[in-house]
Write a structure and sequence with these properties.
Shape of chain A: globular
Order of helices and strands of chain B: EHHEEHEE
Radius of gyration of chain A: 13 Å
Largest sheet of chain B: 5 strands, antiparallel
CATH class of chain B: Alpha Beta
Distance between the termini of chain A: 30 Å
Strand order of the largest sheet of chain A: 1-2-3-4-5
Structural class of chain A: alpha/beta
Number of helices of chain A: 4
Order of helices and strands of chain A: EEHEHEHEH
CATH topology of chain B: Heat Shock Protein 90
Strand content of chain B: 25-35%
Helix content of chain B: 25-40%
CATH class of chain A: Alpha Beta
Low-confidence stretches of chain A: none
Number of domains of chain A: 1
Structural class of chain B: alpha+beta
Strand order of the largest sheet of chain B: 1-2-3-5-4
CATH architecture of chain B: 2-Layer Sandwich
CATH topology of chain A: Transcription Regulator spoIIAA
Oligomer: heterodimer
């Protein structure tokens, strides 16, 4: 699991790749979002296009990241879900909780 | 013809990964399609996480037991831990409004979503979960049972 940040028009895009699972990626995700919130970043876009797998711990971490960001008056959105992640968010009824985009430019524009 | 393999595993995340990868191999060997292999592996992973994390609580003196039984009509997977036991009467519904935004509690829900039958048994001490995927059954007809 890897996570790297880049900034576009005031939005921090976190490019994630690999698996978000208990003991692996979920910690990376948690640390990445906590670090950004600690720096005062409030517009966070998680790019999950290269996330190959997510388990219930990873889903839970996405929810926690969303809630933590909201609690800091910020906004966390998702970009480019794989079919598997899309399906998991649908069956857990979280698909409507997150704002989800396929297009990066549209996602960035939505923060304004 | 029935084929059975079983494992005794340490209460570690490495064992969870092994359970998951073994599930893919067994499901492929049993002839399940790639999507089903992934779903079965995810159910096994979630059950193994429950056994290691919530059941055995990473106790190095406790094992969890994994068995795959490949039958003509189904793949039957059993995962048992040596923990304090699961309160089956009070498994929260992760889809209810009060639980939807919680950071945990979706494992058993996903297991039930991906398998045709799911059964729990209190083994005192410990919990045994049996996961069944029928051969050739359409996912839309999937049926869930728990007892």
């Amino acid at each position: 699991m890897k996570a790297s940040n880049r900034q576009v028009n005031g939005v921090v895009i976190v490019d994630m790749s690999g698996r978000i699972t208990l003991g692996e990626g979920s910690v990376v995700l948690k640390d990445a979002v906590r670090d950004l919130l600690g720096k005062g970043e409030k517009k966070i876009l998680l790019n999950l296009g290269d996330v190959t797998y997510i388990d219930s711990s990873g889903i839970g971490e996405l929810v926690s990241a969303f809630t933590s960001t909201r609690n800091q008056q910020g906004n966390l959105k998702l970009l480019k879900l794989t079919k598997k992640v899309h399906d998991l968010l649908q069956i857990t009824k979280l698909y409507t909780v997150f704002e989800i985009y396929d297009d990066e430019a549209a996602a960035i524009a939505s923060f304004k | 013809m029935t084929k059975r393999v079983s494992y005794s595993l340490d209460s570690t995340l490495e064992s969870v990964n092994k359970a998951e990868s073994t599930a893919v191999e067994v499901a492929a060997g049993a002839g399940f399609a790639e999507d089903d292999q992934g779903n079965i592996a995810m159910a096994v992973r979630e059950a193994a996480v429950n056994a290691v994390l919530h059941g055995n609580a990473y106790d190095p003196n406790k094992k969890f037991f994994l068995a795959f039984e490949t039958r003509d009509d189904a793949l039957v997977i059993t995962i048992a831990d040596q923990g304090k036991g699961l309160d089956m009467e009070h498994i929260p519904d992760p889809l209810s409004p009060e639980n939807l935004m919680k950071g945990s509690g979706r494992g058993i829900f996903l297991i039930r979503a991906f398998m045709d039958e799911v059964r729990f048994r209190n083994t005192d001490p410990g919990t045994e979960i049996t996961l069944i995927k029928h051969v050739g059954r359409n996912a839309a007809n999937a049926k869930e049972e728990s007892q």
